[in-house]
Specification:
Length: 444
């Protein structure tokens, strides 16, 4: 469930799955961070001038005043954050160990702020990254790319200059616009991130598509309405749920064209949670994910009366503070124990192993997003050697889709870890999206 900065999503080593993954990808991309932050000055200045109007209330730019000023998805601000040419994108991708053959264009990247809602339905705002290709068609199809688990808000796509932008740049350089939401409580958005609350991640993602539509039009690159959906780890679960929402008509201006998530925890109750206890998920990863899940979900629905009910000392006094959006994953991992038995009280360990009540409800609220019949082609990318998100999640998802009449292949990336699945699958997904575009939607 790790993030592309780690690449989100986690490596699964014994000492720190999250930290190892982050260090590996960060090291691979450190040499190109300067390329991102020192992008062509003249081009960035032009983009800034173009976007000045968007810093004002978005009601100035089409749609009704009430819809744009108060409605979900209304664009609040638009800020250029990077400009890369084709060679820079290719180096950024290839130095991270990814296939760069689909890179055809340079990219322009913008941080969007937009209106959305909290898990309780109250108005708030969120941020996200919009990436446009430099060149290609004037009217653009859109890729929704949803990131994996991240704890530090600055690792979100619209703020980072590192691995969190790999997938957005990869897909934009292939000739499509990319909307990469930060989610609630990450990036420049207020509050704490409601980790693994799939419903609010979907509303934030749909509203990001709406804001991206407005922003792309401002940039002179209107969107066609076709949306290719992908995501990694936590973001793969969000991608599956987002695809379902779009297929059901969440916004009639957007049409789901294809769905290609990578290594998602689609079945927490029957696949991922059992894997935490039988060794298929590494102990360090299990401790990190479960700590994040319990503390975040407890703010939405009471799972414990006090941290001491769920967590052993000394972790009970620190665990909620660790996930405040200001701690890096590797620092969190160092402050937590190596196993679930060391983390949880005996009673709560048994409760997690055999969930009931509010905890079972929290798990079930995130599951079931594969139980539908997509009108568009679906491919499920994963890896048998992944020790962060068990391949059993993708197999469970495929079974749910099959029961509804959709055959979705489970594409095993082989003997690679969680981040390796992302690095292997992402270029293949870009090529698949290209093939679908050329062949008018036929599955290849």
């Amino acid at each position: 469930m790790t993030s592309q900065t780690s690449t989100s999503t986690h490596s699964g080593t014994a000492d720190s799955a999250h930290g190892t993954a982050r260090r590996r990808l960060a090291g691979a991309t450190a040499a190109v961070v300067a390329l991102v932050t020192t992008a062509t000055t003249a081009t960035a200045a032009t983009a800034t001038a173009t976007a000045v109007a968007a810093e004002r209330p978005a009601s100035k730019h089409g749609a009704s005043h009430s819809q744009q000023t108060y409605g979900r998805g209304a664009l609040v601000s638009l800020k250029p954050v990077a400009v890369l040419d084709r060679a820079q994108v290719a180096r950024f991708v290839s130095r991270a160990g990814m296939d760069a053959r689909t890179v055809e264009h340079g990219v322009r990247a913008y941080r969007l702020a937009y209106r959305t809602i909290t898990p309780e339905g109250r108005p708030t705002h969120a941020t996200g990254l919009l990436v446009l290709p430099r060149g290609g068609d004037r009217r653009l199809d859109l890729v929704s790319d949803t990131h994996g688990t991240m704890a530090h808000r600055a690792n979100a796509p619209s703020v980072t200059t590192g691995p969190g932008r790999l997938a957005p740049y990869l897909h934009a350089s292939a000739g499509r616009a990319v909307a990469a939401p930060d989610y609630l409580g990450l990036g420049k958005g207020p509050g704490r991130h409601p980790y693994m609350d799939t419903a609010s991640s979907v509303t934030a993602s749909v509203d990001m598509l709406r804001a991206a539509r407005t922003a792309a039009r401002l940039m002179g690159r209107p969107l066609t309405g076709d949306v290719y959906v992908t995501g990694f780890s936590q973001g793969a679960q969000v991608a599956m749920a987002l695809g379902r929402a779009l297929d059901a008509g969440a916004d009639r201006r957007f049409r789901l064209r294809a769905l290609a998530p990578i290594s998602g925890p689609y079945d927490l109750q029957h696949a991922e949670l059992p894997a935490l206890f039988d060794g298929r998920v590494s102990p360090a990863s299990g401790v990190f994910y479960l700590s994040y899940f319990l503390t975040a979900q407890n703010r939405l629905r009471p799972l414990y009366r006090s941290p001491a009910e769920a967590f052993r000392a000394p972790y009970a006094s620190r665990v909620e503070r660790l996930f405040d959006g200001r701690h890096q994953e590797e620092d969190i991992a160092k402050a937590l124990p190596g196993t679930l038995k060391e983390l949880l009280t005996p009673a709560y360990y048994q409760r997690v192993k055999h969930p009931r009540g509010a905890l079972l409800a929290a798990l079930r609220a995130q599951d079931g997003n594969c139980d539908w019949k997509p009108k568009s082609p679906v491919r499920l990318y994963t890896a048998a050697a992944d020790t962060d998100v068990s391949i059993s999640n993708s197999r469970s998802c495929a079974r749910d889709l099959a029961r509804n009449g959709t055959k979705a292949p489970v594409l095993d990336q082989g003997s690679v870890d969680h981040v390796g699945a992302f690095k292997s699958a992402s270029p293949k997904i870009a090529r698949w999206f290209n093939a679908l575009d050329r062949d008018d939607g036929r599955v290849l």
